[in-house]
Each structure stands twice: as C-alpha cells, then as structure tokens.
Write a structure and sequence with these properties.
By secondary structure, the protein is mainly α. It has 2 domains: about 5-235, no CATH class; about 260-290. It has helices spanning about 5-25, 40-70, 85-105, 110-115, 135-150, 160-175, 190-200, 215-220, 250-255, 270-285, 290-300. Helix 2 packs parallel to helix 5, helix 3 (about 85-105) packs across helix 6 and helix 10 (about 270-285) runs antiparallel to helix 11 (about 290-300). It is globular. The termini are far apart. Keywords: Lipid metabolism, Membrane, Oxidoreductase, Transmembrane, Transmembrane helix. One of its GO terms (biological process) is lipid biosynthetic process. It comes from Mucilaginibacter celer. It is found in: Endomembrane system.
C-alpha cells in the first residue's frame, strides 16, 4: 500500500478517535463538571500538540535518526523486515512499551529526569489532551528510542504511521476524563481508572501506575495502585503539590532553574509577555459564539494574571523527591 494512502487512513482513524473520545468524555465523565476549555487547554493544544510536535518531528527524524541511519543501518540483516506488518507493529509496540514503563519509573525516582517529566503532571484538570504536555527533552529521548529501531532495523515504512497512530489513541484514552469499567481487561490494557490515579496528588501514587499501553507491566513489577475508587475532585487532589508555571516557555525554564513566576511580574517586560496570552484570549473571546465565550472566559482570561490559592499539600515534601 502506498505510504500516502497509509497516512490518509491512519489520520482519518485518528480524527474519528478524537471525536469519539470527546463525545465519551461528555457522556460518561470520570470527573463531572470538567470543562472542555479547561485550564491549560490552549497551551496543550497550540504549543504542545501542534507547534512542539511539528518541530520535534523534523528534529528527531531529519537531524537525529537520519544521521544514525547513515552510520548504523542494520536493515541488511533483515531482523524484522520479513515479518508481516502486523507482527512488526506488535513487536515494536510491546518492546517500546516495556522501555516506556522502565524509563517512566526511572523519571519518578531521579531528581534530574523528574524535571523533564514534571510538566506532564502539572495539569490539575486531566483530559484527552493532557497527555500531549511533555517536556521537549522527554519527547526527544522517548521518540528517538521509539522510532530509531524501526528505521535502523529496516521495518516496513507502514509501521511508523501505524505505531504513531496507536500511541496517540492510547495517550488520549488513558488520559481521557472517562468513566469506564474495563473488567478483567484492566490487567492487560491500561485504562483511565489506573492512569488518572497516576496524575493524582497523593503520595501513594507518586511511584505507581507507570504503564502506558499495557497495564500488566505494573502488575508484573508490583507498581500498580488500584484502590477501587476515584481521587477527589478538588484541584489539590490533582497535579503537582507545588506551584508550577502556566506558560509554555516558563515551564521549560523551570526545569533548569526554579523560580516564582509571580515575583517576575515586577519586571515590565515580563508582565507584558505574561499577560499577552490572556489579552489575546480576550480578543478571541469577543469573536466566539456566546456559548463558547462563557467557557473560554472562565478558564483563560483572568486566571493567568492572578495567583492561585496555596494548594493543600497532600504529599509531605520531606517524603518526596518529586519537586
């Protein structure tokens, strides 16, 4: 099948899946009352999903993997190229998921690598789009290790778009604000009921539920946390237990140097930059239909300029390195 046709089919499936997940969140929400245009929605969509993904795709495939292929092309050994495409997809899906589990677990136990992962946990309103929020360094590491073997081992070119589509579908599903009972499948396939606990601000889950696609890694390596009920609905029950910047660039700067973004507002240039997005959102708000306007107004126009109430710390800092 021509590669363009594969891209068309995988893109179509992905867009249909997005519509399905959005509808599912509205019909059967895990946390009731979570708005579609929730806090951080536009940063996750515009910066992380569209802009960052576009540029990192070029960087990873053209400037990291392509040079690697010129030096370490192993396709002539035909390790996987003679396998059916479905087997190739399953092989890379399984092996990469094991790597992701181990690396994810390592990130939660290492202070340096936690700084490249904390952005992913910073959202206090988790939905299908929240999985896209990942630090640049984390994406470069994970996607290079994910796609380089596929190319270096000479797998069928169809494997890349199919694997990427499955990654996106699983990512939206496990982060989706969806109330779903997987039954005994929860021991094999990861689900929101396990992964949303991973995003909760409870010390019991700071080192639990690391799996992404296959939950059996957590059961196998005894890192599963499944109390049989959901976390609380309050903001302090979710995300990080310490203040975290709202701005995309500040989130990346925070991984290098800790600071209080509210104190930076005394500088005129920073105040102008910091309030630029709320002002643009205000202009957008005027152009939106009334129904969407109310939702956007509640989430984005004024929150960025005001300091949040101090969150309740459910996890004692002295017992946790994740800060």
């Amino acid at each position: 099948m021509p590669q363009e046709q594969v891209l068309t089919i995988t893109s179509t499936i992905l867009f249909c899946w997005i519509a399905f997940i959005i509808a599912w969140e509205r019909i059967s929400p895990y946390r009731k009352g979570l708005k579609f245009f929730r806090e951080g929605f536009w940063i996750d969509l515009v910066w992380y999903t569209l802009i960052q993904s576009y540029f990192l795709k070029i960087l990873i495939f053209d400037y990291i993997i392509a040079p690697m292929q010129r030096h370490w092309d192993l396709s002539h050994f035909h390790f996987v190229s003679n396998w059916p495409v479905a087997v190739q997809v399953l092989f890379f899906l399984f092996t990469h998921d094991l790597y992701i589990y181990l690396f994810h677990r390592f990130q939660h136990s290492n202070k340096l690598f936690w700084r490249f992962h904390e952005a992913h946990h910073s959202g206090k309103e988790v939905d299908f789009l929240a999985g896209s929020r990942s630090h640049v360094v984390e994406i470069i590491i994970n996607q290079t290790i994910e796609f380089a073997p596929i190319i270096l081992l000479g797998a069928d070119p169809m494997v890349i778009p199919i694997k990427a589509m499955l990654d996106a579908m699983f990512g939206m599903f496990i982060h989706g604000n969806i109330k779903v009972n997987m039954g005994k499948l929860k021991y094999i396939i990861n689900s929101p009921e396990l992964h949303l606990w991973h995003h909760a601000n409870y010390i019991e889950v700071f080192h639990a539920n690391f799996a992404t696609k296959f939950s059996f890694w957590d059961y196998l390596f005894k890192s599963v946390y499944d109390p049989g009920h959901a976390p609380g609905d309050k903001p302090e029950n979710w995300g990080l237990h310490y203040d975290y910047p709202r701005d995309y660039f500040l989130q990346h700067a925070f991984s290098v140097k800790r600071f209080d973004e509210q104190k930076l507002l005394k500088y005129r240039w920073f105040s102008w930059y910091y309030n630029l997005r709320p002002q643009l959102m205000g202009l957008l708000n005027k152009a939106l239909p009334a129904k969407l306007k109310a939702s956007v107004q509640q989430t984005d126009t004024t929150k960025a300029a005001n300091k949040l109430p101090e969150p309740v710390i459910l996890a004692p800092q002295e017992e946790n390195i994740l800060q």
